[in-house]
Amino acid sequence: MQLLEQRLEAMEERTRASETLAEVSGGRTRTLEDQIRVLQDQVDDLENKSRTKKLLDREEGGDLTGFLQEWFLRFLQLELESGLLSVGRAW
Questions:
Q1: Same domain assignment for residues 23 and 46
Q2: 2, 40, 76, 78: which has the fewest Cβ within 10 Å?
Q3: Is 63 helix (H, G, I), strand (E, B) or coil?
Q4: Count of domains in the chain?
Q5: What is the SS3 assignment for 82?
Q6: pTM (two decimals)
Q7: What does the record list as coiled-coil region(s) (predicted)?
Q8: What single DSSP character describes residue 55?
Q9: 69 and 49: one domain?
Q10: Calpha distance 34→52 (Å, rounded)
Q11: CB-CB neighbours of 73 under 10 Å
Q12: Which structural domain, as residue segments, surrounds residue 77?
C-alpha cells in the first residue's frame, strides 16, 4: 500500500511539473505571437511605403522637384510669365 502511495505522489508531482511547464510555454507562445503580429505590421508598412515610392518615382520620372513644379502649375491653373514655378526642395 505504501508503495502505491509513493508512486501516486510521484505521478502527481510529475503532473504538477507538466502543468507548470505548459502554463509557462503558453505565456511564451502568446508573447511570441504578439511579437510576430508587430513585426508583420512593420513589414506591411514598409511594403506599402516601398510601393508608394515606386509609384511616385514612376509618376514623376525620378525628378520630384520638376514634377511638383509642373503639377502645381496645372493643378492651380497658373500662367506665369516665365512659365516656371520655383520649388526649392522636395522629398
A1: yes
A2: 2
A3: coil
A4: 2
A5: coil
A6: 0.45
A7: 1-56
A8: H
A9: no
A10: 27
A11: 15
A12: 61-91
